[in-house]
Amino acid sequence: MAKFNTPSLANSAPNTETAQWRDYLELTKPKVVAMLLLTAMVGMCLAVPSLPPAHAVILGLLGIGMQSAAAAVFNHVIDQRIDRQMQRTIHRPVAKGRVGTSQALAFGGLLMVAGFTLLWVLNALVAWLTFASLIGYAVVYTVWLKHATPQNIVIGGLAGAMPPLLGWVAVTGTLDPHALLLVMLIFTWTPPHFWALAIHREKDYAKAGVPMLPVTHGVEFTKTMILLYTLLLVVVGLLPWLAGMSGLIYLFGSLALNLGFAWYAWQLKFHDRKGLAWQTFKYSIWHVFGLFVALLADHAWRAIG
């Protein structure tokens, strides 16, 4: 593994701008949380034949959302040194000093406790599973895995793949193998999604001393891994249909989306051009959104039928 030299932070001291509500909102990574809540909502809907109970949906989404937002806030606090060294993150509120570390920790703690309490009202299992996901992302991944191994996003991706399972458990109070298939979809999707971004920001990660795969094993090796994971995703994407939890709407939708992702990965590996890694990353966001919308649409159609 390559050795990294950490640049001096002498010239990157935080400023003293007054925090605004937008800064606290940015700390929660609202776009990421919104996507997580979509996948949790799909898990809720697929857990029952018809509509899930309204109280489970409201309390479940609020609780999962608050815990996810808390994990994002803690990520800002823990990664502030790295954030000051990367162009993509240099303007984050804690890195810039618009929100102090103690204020961010208090905000994150409040969200964590409130989210856990709401989920506890539903059932203890979803409360503890969601808390475990928070710890997995904010501590295990951010503090340890991110700096320990180029497989950080593969192992740590499990925490981000949990929301469909959490939504399922919020409604039923039990674990189910079908919910784990939804986790597998996101778990397989996460590495090629993030590695495309890592290729685009490879110099940033190298500068910050973060051992992302393009930094430690090279861009070409990373492209190969992206292609292999997208091909695996095509196979994993068939499992909900093969298991009987979804029908033809999902089958054809997932095949189109997954093959599209594989096509981007093929182009990235064998016909790369400027900006293609970034385009692949952006496609992957719409891809996972479309995948779970297809699951939801398929479930609704089957419920009507």
Describe the structure using short key phrases.
305 residues; mainly alpha; disordered N terminus
* Mean pLDDT over the residues: 91
Question: Regions with pLDDT < 50 over 5+ consecutive residues?
Answer: 1-16
String of helices and strands: HHHHHHHHHHHHHHHH
- Rg estimate, integer Å: 20 Å
Q: Helix count? A: 16
Structural class: mainly alpha
State the helicity in percent bands.
over 70%
- Beta-strand portion reads under 5%
Extended strand count: 0
Q: What is the overall silhouette?
A: flat
Biggest sheet record: none
Distance linking N and C termini? 55 Å
Could you walk me through the main structural features you see in this protein, from its secondary elements to its overall organization?
This protein is mainly alpha-helical. 76% of the residues lie in helices and 0% in strands. The chain contains 16 helices and no strands. It has helices spanning 21-27, 30-46, 54-78, 80-83, 93-96, 101-122, 124-148, 152-160, 163-172, 177-200, 202-208, 213-217, 219-236, 239-242, 248-270, 276-304. The model is unreliable at 1-16 (pLDDT under 50).
Itemize the secondary structure elements and their pairings.
Blueprint: H1 21-27, H2 30-46, H3 54-78, H4 80-83, H5 93-96, H6 101-122, H7 124-148, H8 152-160, H9 163-172, H10 177-200, H11 202-208, H12 213-217, H13 219-236, H14 239-242, H15 248-270, H16 276-304
